[in-house]
Amino acid sequence: MDVGDMYTDYKNQRILQALLGGLMGKLIDRTGQVFGKLTALEQSGRDTFKKVLWRCKCECGKEAVVTSGSLVTGNTTSCGCVVPNFKHGGWKKSSYNTWRAMLRRCNNPNDKDYSRWGGRGIKVCSQWGDYLKFAKDMGEPNGGETLDRIDVNGDYTPENCRWATLTVQARNTRLPKTSKTGVVGVLFHNNRYYAAITVKKKKFYSKVFCTIQEAAVARKELERIHWGVA
């Protein structure tokens, strides 16, 4: 039976696509992209599992053939001339898991969050393809801190990243494209303005106002009450 006949349902097609390593999907040209110490030179066929292979040049001068998945997830960052990350204990640290997630959502179109990062053009700087360089630049987070981009429309670079609490990150959000007011946390409905804020997945609202300026002030008051900021 033809594969298309067996998997007519869209969801099943996506599952099959993932299992076949992108066989049914559009090939992404990674020529020239840098992954740690590796630079992708050209596609080199597929392996026995039908996964796309890339011939890469390592900084040490050697070449290696690596699956596309291993490159974009950070599993392979050299030809083997350096000690793999898991051997130096990185996998035990919060920064390592954060680094892996950062690479996935920016480089892997099959990742559930790709549309919000890589799909918007957000990139990871070339040196951060190497976990050791990322860890050297960022160190480890404290408590519940997670990785935050200061410019929410900018790339993942040492200058644009910090460890931040969820409260700080909640304040540092990009304005939704659907915004009718141009002010974060201020909404417009039925010819009236009002403020809203989210705390631990629960929304809080102000009363309605006639002007956007009044609603903006109300938003600041909600931040003071629920986030403890002036």
Characterise the protein shown here:
By secondary structure, the chain is an alpha+beta fold. It folds into two domains: 3-141, no CATH class; 175-227, no CATH class. 27% of the residues lie in helices and 20% in strands. It has helices at 3-6, 10-19, 68-72, 94-107, 131-138, 166-171, 212-227, and strands at 34-35, 38-46, 52-58, 63-67, 146-149, 161-164, 186-189, 192-199, 202-205. It has a four-stranded antiparallel β-sheet with strand order 1-2-3-4. A three-stranded antiparallel β-sheet has the order 7-8-9. Strand 1 and strand 2 form a beta hairpin. Helix 4 (94-107) crosses helix 5 (131-138). The longest helix has 16 residues, at 212-227. The protein is elongated, with a radius of gyration of 22 Å. The model is unreliable at 1-24 (pLDDT under 50).
Short description, anyone?
Helices cover 27% and strands 20% of the residues.
